[in-house]
Amino acid sequence: MNDSRKYWVGFNLVKGIGPARLRALLDVFGDAETAWKASVSDLREAGLGTQIFEQMVQVREEIDLEQIWASIEAKNVGVITWIDENYPRRLKDLDYSPPVLYIRGELLPDDDWAVAMVGTRRMTGYGRQVATDVASYLASRGVTIISGLARGIDSVAHEAALQVGGRTIAVLGNGVDIIYPPEHRRLAQRIIECGALISDYPPGTPPESSNFPPRNRIISGLSKAVIVVEAGKKSGALITASFAAEQGREVFAVPGNIIAPQSKGTNHLIQQGARPLLDPQDVLDVLNLTQLPAFMEARTLLPADAKEAQLMELLRNEPYHVDELCERTGWMVEEVSSTLALMELKGMVRSLGGMNYMAVMERRDEYSVEEDE
């Protein structure tokens, strides 16, 4: 059976072909298989730089794509691409979303309602307790907990979610067939059973230090909000918070001892405008997730009433601020906000930040990015 996803994997193995260049190739050739099999002369005319062109030709000649695909299948690793229906919706909305994701476990529609929890590897007892309490509280109420499987806060958040029977997702800075750190093998297996391991790095990719900062954009991209529990001044968790802010996600930071090194980063985030997390209920309130079980049930429904239909019509062609929607509909702001919250959870609209919303349309041909990773 010919699975076109193997050609996406092929491009993922070519150093220098990121989202922008792959998008350009798809625009020229129409699909990944045609692009991969294109003649050398056609590839040269496709606009790739000399170095990238030579790299692609070399990789294409040296690898056995059928063998690589067979190895991926043998390891029970799933592959999701831009054009697949189960590609995570929140990640797809980003202009630099990874073309290929490798999965062990399963992604569910309910994982749209996810919150990332990140922090230092050198956590204090205070950090451990807060991470456990917050992750347990949110996961027990239907929120998927996303983190990076690292030592410290990450692993505590995963463990806490699993303890209450919740879902959790680990985003790795290496191939999903490699568990790092190695002492988290058992935890990783439990995550596979109640969530997923995800990476945009091909199987077999080792856990090199340069891989981890870029993967943080996926942690924040999959989430509605990022919670930083403890972080030093140069913690990788702050990189995740920075990506979250750029992506229009909410950023929460747990206040800490002003002289403790593990709280320098979180206190600084609060100083810069992050929401101080004083109670896990704050997360549900800010994200309009207080009635998440009802929202999960509503997800399966079509537009429920004329109000949803009216807002969809307004937002179909351009984004609007909540205040503008109030003016056009004549509704109170509470009415508009509550309807938008339900519509967002049903996947009908998405927030652009700053109380601006637009309709979510199926546009699989739009994956523009400014530059390659």
What do these coordinates show?
By secondary structure, this protein is an alpha/beta fold. It is 44% helix and 13% strand. The protein has helices at residues 5-12, 19-29, 32-36, 40-45, 50-62, 65-74, 89-92, 125-139, 153-163, 185-193, 212-221, 236-246, 264-271, 281-286, 292-298, 306-315, 322-329, 333-345; strands spanning 78-81, 100-105, 114-118, 144-147, 168-171, 195-199, 225-228, 250-253, 275-276, 320-321, 349-353, 356-359. Helix 8 runs parallel beside helix 9 and helix 11 (212-221) crosses helix 12 (236-246). It is globular.
Concise account of the structure shown:
With 373 residues, this protein is α/β, with parallel strands linked by helices.
Order of helices and strands: HHHHHHEHEEHEHEHEHEHEHEHHHEHHEE
C-alpha Rg, in Å? 21 Å
Strand content: 5-15%
Oligomer: single chain
Residues in helices, as a percent range: 40-55%
Strand count, sense and closure of the main sheet? Answer: 9 strands, mixed
Mass-distribution shape? globular
Strand order of the largest sheet: 1-2-6-5-4-3-7-8-9
Query: What is the CA-CA span between the terminal residues?
Result: 32 Å
**Mean pLDDT across every amino acid position:** 88
Number of helices: 18
Low-confidence stretches: 362-373
What is the count of β-strands? 12
Structural class: alpha/beta
Main attributes of the structure:
373 residues, nine-stranded mixed beta sheet, three-stranded antiparallel beta sheet, 18 helices, 12 strands, 44% helix, globular
